[in-house]
Design goal:
20 helices; arginine biosynthesis; 496 residues; Fumarase/histidase_N; mainly alpha
Length: 496
């Protein structure tokens, strides 16, 4: 190892020291280059246009500035390398604009703004893009889930509680539950979008400026929905990051739960779903194995997305209420990775769900086992014979225990045998037709017509309601995406 004198010599005597460059400035520069380059120039354009419209600079100056900005914006990103004379990418690009139009004129671009409000605006623009991409993929997955739900309104399956066979339901009903959770995740993403899509520009360092700028104008040019009015809040508030992180975390936790279910359903023992060939991998040594790698990776990638979003939240914790820009240089990449991985999960599971095959016969067969319709015996006794439910439940429980003890299924009993057991408790005789209904998963599902239940008619109604709502939501999303694209086009093509 180098001794202290050699270390100090290598570090230098002025800012930035070698270690600071290698461990902070270079990594931050590369992150900025990868994520912030394009939005930086959009902010330059909007600010210059506003300065000219407010006569803070002349139109001629603004024209030259915009020409220089647009020319430097065409720089090949891959060619950019950290240079020690520039603190970061922002100062490097400011120097390049100065090379094009002259340092004096380039210096005027920074009138009435700070790295603080500019930095927060860049982060918000990038997060806006990530949120919209995630929403697009979430809507695409929603369509696939709803489509499969429609196809399987009468595909009977075992529903589980406490990991144990509980009651019959349908695959359509189960998938609708997943769909509804995803819609709430989408609602949380939209809430984060609304918080993110607000403009801090004009706050400058934290107290605005003495120049007569128009904050609403830069807000409009960049497609923000509104201005963050309090200028201190503009550069100090970090809840837009917290809300975004929380939305991604919740999405991945919820998605990871049903992905775990899918891994169980695709096992040879369950054989409920068959993953399409493009999304399975054959073992290198055991050729009979169809490894559901698309689902396995989705589960682990979802955990990775959650972890990065949580890291961003943790980095904000106890950060002083002031300029958060420098902190964001370190935490933003965590959020970008979280979004990237979340979108990988959504796209992978869209591919799996859209193409999977369902083993309907096997699922129905399994729904006849494990005494999972026995609740209907208790219900029938209470509903049709006026037996107190707790007493009816104890009779059903006794029959279930005998069934397990004798290694039978409910369909192995005939009505005479069941009536002999019931007779020990109450004076009720079930007909053969009544017993057949009690042991039928189809009847069990059909009779549960209460709002939100698994009855095919009720599932059909729910699907119909959700299809219309989803269509409207997707239209709203597309409208917002088109508006932002048009705003960007107007900004780039703006002529004074």
């Amino acid at each position: 190892m180098n001794n202290l004198e050699e270390f100090i010599k290598e570090e230098g005597t002025v800012f930035p020291g070698k270690t600071y460059v290698e461990e902070l400035l270079k990594p931050v520069f590369n992150d900025q280059k990868d994520y912030l380059f394009h939005v930086m120039f959009d902010i330059h354009r909007a600010h210059v246009i506003m300065l000219a419209e407010k006569s803070i600079i002349s139109e001629e100056e603004a024209k030259v500035m915009l020409e220089g900005i647009n020319k430097v914006a065409e720089t090949d990103i891959d060619s950019l390398r950290y240079q020690p004379q520039f603190e970061d990418l922002f100062f490097m690009m400011e120097a390049k604009i100065g090379d094009e139009i002259g340092d004096e004129l380039a210096g005027k671009i920074h009138i009435a703004r700070s790295r603080n409000d500019m930095g927060v605006a860049m982060y918000r623009l990038v997060l806006r893009e990530h949120l919209l991409t995630t929403l697009r993929n979430a809507y695409q997955l929603s369509e696939a889930i709803l489509d499969q739900s429609k196809k399987h309104k009468e595909t009977y399956m075992t529903g589980y509680t406490h990991t144990q066979p509980a009651q019959p339901t349908t695959l359509g009903h189960y998938l609708l539950a997943i769909y509804d959770v995803l819609q709430r995740d989408i609602k949380r993403l939209w809430s984060a979008y609304e918080t993110v899509n607000q403009s801090p520009l004009g706050a400058a360092a934290l107290t605005t400026t003495g120049f007569p700028i128009c904050r609403d104008r830069t807000c409009d040019l960049l497609g923000f929905d509104r201005v963050i009015e309090n200028s201190y809040d503009s550069i100090g508030g970090a809840d837009y990051l917290l809300e975004t992180s929380t939305a991604v975390m919740t999405l991945m936790v919820n998605t990871g739960r049903w992905i775990q279910d899918f891994l169980q359903h695709v096992t040879r023992e369950f054989s409920s779903f068959l993953v399409a060939d493009p999304y399975v991998q054959i073992s290198s040594i055991m050729p009979q194995k169809r490894n559901p790698v698309s689902i396995e990776h989705s589960r682990s990638i979802a955990s990775s997305a959650y972890g990065d979003a949580l890291a961003a939240m943790n980095m904000i914790h106890n950060t002083p209420f002031g300029d958060i820009v420098d902190t964001e240089d370190d935490l933003q990449p965590h959020l970008y990775r979280a979004f990237n991985n979340a979108n990988r999960v959504l796209k992978l599971m869209y591919a799996v769900i859209s193409t999977m095959k369902v083993n309907k016969e096997h699922m129905t067969k399994m729904a006849r086992k494990s005494s999972i319709t026995i609740t209907e015996l208790a219900d029938t006794l209470a509903r049709d014979f006026d037996i107190p439910f707790r007493k009816a439940h104890s009779i059903a429980s006794h029959i279930s225990k005998i069934t397990v003890k004798e290694k039978k299924e409910l369909y192995n009993w005939d009505s005479k045998e069941i009536n002999q057991i019931i007779k020990e408790y109450i004076d009720v005789v079930l007909t053969e037709e009544e017993w057949k209904k009690i042991i039928s998963p189809e009847y069990f599902v059909e009779i549960r017509k209460i709002q939100g239940g698994p009855s095919p008619d009720e599932v059909t109604r729910m699907i119909s309601d959700r299809e219309e709502l989803l269509l409207n939501k997707v239209k709203e999303y597309e409208k917002i995406s088109i508006r932002l694209n048009e705003k960007h086009k107007e900004l780039v093509e703006y002529r004074l």
